[in-house]
Amino acid sequence: MKYRYKKNSYSDIFQLAKVMYKDTSFFAKELKEEKLLSFISSLDKHKASEIEKISKLILPDDVLVFKATYILNPFISFRFANKEFKDYKELGLAMLISSPQIDNSLSQIVSYSLLSEHMLSTNYNEENQEEYERIVEYQKEGMNDLSYGYFLIAYYLSKKENIIFDHVEYPDLFSFVYYLYHSKYDKEELGQLLSHSAMLKAYSKFGKEKHKVDEFLHLNSELDKSEQDLKEFIKNFK
């Protein structure tokens, strides 16, 4: 028995699993249809049963297809929502691109605990138990504050020690603050934004200037957040 998708025919579930992430809307529907389930069942009844169970859950298309993918082929690289990542570091960097905002698609990786699921699927956790436990911890943080958990994972995986803001990487906090001060942003609104920044809060755990970031966050949350505050903060670096 074969399964036909577009111009290709698949005779095994392992190869099919490698391409499902490229067309999640299509496969999210197919996973609930007899045609695909029969094909999977003809090769592995247990996997077909597992997929049938998750297809009855209320899940976003990307998440459903992700879960089905790793039931079919547990050991392939991380693939999600039309993106393939060669390793976890590359995933972390992709998550940081949209900083200080989160990528709504990739945020589902955090809210549905897909990263730890992938680590278990591929047995990555067996030789990297500390990293696995850290990811589980950050996913739990994401249950309370999705943006904070998202950036904790992004910085942890990417190994970045610099601030990334609007697609620009700043070598240190002074350069970042100096840019902000001379930018078009309204200073009061900017102070309010940064005082609640999940990105900066997470960065303070991994950056090379942790105490200065904490001071900056405190300044923005406790003081008047005026233009003069930013001037004074910049002076402290000189």
Overall outline = elongated
Task: Tell me the series of helices and strands, N- to C-terminal.
Answer: EEHHHHHEEHHHHHHEEHHHHH
User: What's the helical proportion of residues?
Assistant: 55-70%
Biggest β-sheet: strands ordered side by side in the sheet: 1-2
Poorly predicted runs are: none
Q: How many beta-strand segments?
A: 6
Distance N to C terminus: 71 Å
Q: How large is the radius of gyration?
A: 22 Å
Q: Pairing-aware structural class of the strands and helices?
A: mainly alpha
**Strand residues, percent:** 5-15%
Query: What is the assembly state of the chains in this entry?
Result: single chain
Main sheet specs? 2 strands, antiparallel
Count of domains: 3
**With helices defined by DSSP (H or I, 4 residues minimum), what is the helix count?**
16
| Mean pLDDT across residues | 87
